[in-house]
Design goal:
The chain is of the alpha/beta class. The protein has 10 helices and 6 strands; from the N terminus they run H-E-H-H-E-H-H-E-H-E-H-H-H-E-E-H. It has a 6-stranded parallel β-sheet, with helices on both faces. Strand 3 (121-125), helix 6 (133-146) and strand 4 (153-160) form a beta-alpha-beta unit. The longest helix has 41 residues, at 249-289. It is globular, with a radius of gyration of 23 Å.
């Protein structure tokens, strides 16, 4: 009984400290879109002397905790790199364990009380046709059951690469031009961005997929591994040494603090880029409406 009481006290103090720190962080700019490369599950398993499946399971537990932490801070979109198409080269035994875990975890996310209270949406991005039917069906179930929610979004990237995402969006743009849904003169980076994984769903809710503000990679690796290549142009990149199963709330706090330190510079860079695009677009419009030989401008009167 005394041990349970002590654990309860520790838990209450820990939760109070977390809420206090979260409130302090919210006084500064909070990234709207956080992307995480969850790296280190296999190394964690090897270092701990447990099966690889146990390492992946521990990583899934941390993902649920990270969702709660991010949404408590006010993050609107959390994108996580759960399974790259490159991971399909792993052993059949490990892949089957990953697919089984994915089915269970997606089901857990559907029923998660914290996500339900926040009206969170679950989206699964990637080539779903490359996944086993049981995983694909569970992903579709999660998206269907949460599609009407208006809270933050958890974007789980499976069978995903940034290059495939861009290629798919370009092909969809071309199809829309050929089908008449989009005029060729309207094709620009925004048109492509609106056809990236997850963006269509966000547009249905009145806003496109926000660009990544903060990209975090665990395990000490300092590469993007083909993740969010189009979306992370002006993202703050934070690489942490800790393996994903050991990732804590304070590691997230450190990453957000790093973002806040450079938020003004990132905002200026993004604004300068948008301004340059606006000037270029305006110049194109002016050039298009110039009166050509033998053509009368709209609204002008012919001389008599």
């Amino acid at each position: 009984a005394r041990g349970r009481r002590a654990r309860t006290i520790v838990s209450v103090v820990r939760d109070g400290c977390r809420r206090f720190i979260a409130r302090a962080l919210r006084a500064g700019p909070i990234p709207r879109h956080v992307a995480v490369i969850m790296d280190g599950n296999r190394r964690f398993a090897c270092a701990s002397g447990v099966a690889l499946a146990r390492g992946h399971a521990r990583g899934a537990d941390v993902l649920r905790e990270a969702c709660a932490w991010c949404f408590e801070l006010g993050v609107e979109t959390l994108s996580v790199y759960a399974l790259s198409t490159e991971n399909f080269k792993r052993s059949e035994r490990e892949l089957e364990a990953l697919f089984d875990l994915a089915c269970g975890e997606i089901g857990t996310l559907i029923d998660d009380e914290g996500l339900r209270l926040r009206e969170a949406r679950v989206h699964v991005s990637g080539d779903l046709d490359a996944l086993p039917k049981r995983v694909r069906d569970k992903a579709k179930e999660a998206m269907e059951k949460t599609k009407d929610n208006r809270g933050p979004m958890l974007n789980v990237c499976m069978a995903y690469t940034g290059r495939e995402d861009i290629a798919r969006a370009v092909m969809k743009t071309r199809e829309d031009v050929r089908g008449g849904a989009l005029d060729a003169s309207e094709v620009d980076e925004r048109a492509v961005a609106s056809r990236l994984h997850g963006a269509e769903r966000e547009i249905e809710l009145g806003a496109g997929m926000p660009e990544v503000d903060l990209l975090v990679r665990t395990s000490g690796e300092t590469r993007l591994s083909d993740f969010m290549l189009f979306n992370a142009r002006f993202a703050k990149l934070v690489f942490v040494e800790v393996l994903w199963p050991d990732f804590t709330f304070m590691d997230l706090v450190h990453a957000v603090w790093q973002y806040q330190l450079g938020a003004k510079d990132l905002k200026r860079s993004r604004q300068a880029y948008d301004d340059a695009n606006a000037i270029e677009a305006e110049s194109a419009v002016v050039a298009e409406v110039r009166v050509q030989p033998g053509r009368v401008a709209k609204g002008a009167k012919r001389s008599v």
